[in-house]
Amino acid sequence: MRAMPPPPPLLACLLTLLLATTMVPPAGAFCVSKKGGAHSKPPAKPKPAPAPPKPIPLIPGADIVRSLCLKTDYPDLCMSSISKQPQPQLPGGKRLDGAGVLRLAMAAVRAKAAEASDAAAALANDPKTQPGARGPLNDCVDSFDDLAYNLEQAEKALAAGDRGTTGTMLDAVRTDVDTCDQGFEEREELKKVMGKRDAELAKLASNCLAIATAAGLR
């Protein structure tokens, strides 16, 4: 058999170009640059941590009511009850002091005790009240009268700078509230109709003691 003669140079060149165009590199063979283009987003900056809350100043002066109320067991009740009292008219340049805050706290006790006394008297005269509860209710009225007297004595002692008597009278105010409760606790069959009022009065009286202690007035 005779061997085929080699193709002419022009034909060989055409075949080479044809083969080159048909040989496409497989997918993924191209290298893609990972450099960000004009529209690439910079990495997000971490958010700064929130600043810690500023401590509440406990130095008497700018906010003496808040300062002293924060040292009681019932600070919210302390501040709300004091804010409801008529604020004292102080001479120009003079600021409220610890004794002034204590007087406002005692005024809050006096106002609530007057409301409680009226409520106890009304219940004692109400025909729908349990007959056995009338005696304890009348005792509550007497206890609230004693409470008002002891507050008056505490105010006089406070004005005189008598810390011992101030503390003793404030302790007596707290005891007067408990006396009203005891009349119902001794008789389990009685509904504690003064329980809610007595609980609030006990907290207010406790606040007075804490304020007097924090302000160095007892």
Tags for this model:
single chain, 218 residues, mainly alpha, 7 helices, 58% helix, Pectinesterase_inhib_dom, Pectinesterase inhibitor domain-containing protein, Invertase/methylesterase_inhib, signal
Give the proportion of residues in helices.
Answer: 55-70%
User: Treating each run of at least 4 consecutive H or I residues as one helix, how many helices?
Assistant: 7
Number of strands: 0
Q: What is the mean predicted local confidence, pLDDT? A: 82
Rg, please? Answer: 43 Å
Q: Could you give the distance between the termini?
A: 134 Å
- In terms of structural class, how would the helical and strand content be classed? mainly alpha
Rough shape?
Answer: globular
InterPro entries: Invertase/methylesterase_inhib, Pectinesterase_inhib_dom, PME_Inhibitor
Domain Pectinesterase inhibitor: 60-211
Keywords: Signal
Signal peptide: 1-29
Please describe what this structure looks like.
The chain has 218 residues and is mostly helical. It is 58% helix and 0% strand. It contains seven helices and no strands. Helix 4 packs antiparallel against helix 5, helix 5 runs antiparallel to helix 6 and helix 6 runs antiparallel to helix 7 (195-214). The chain is globular.
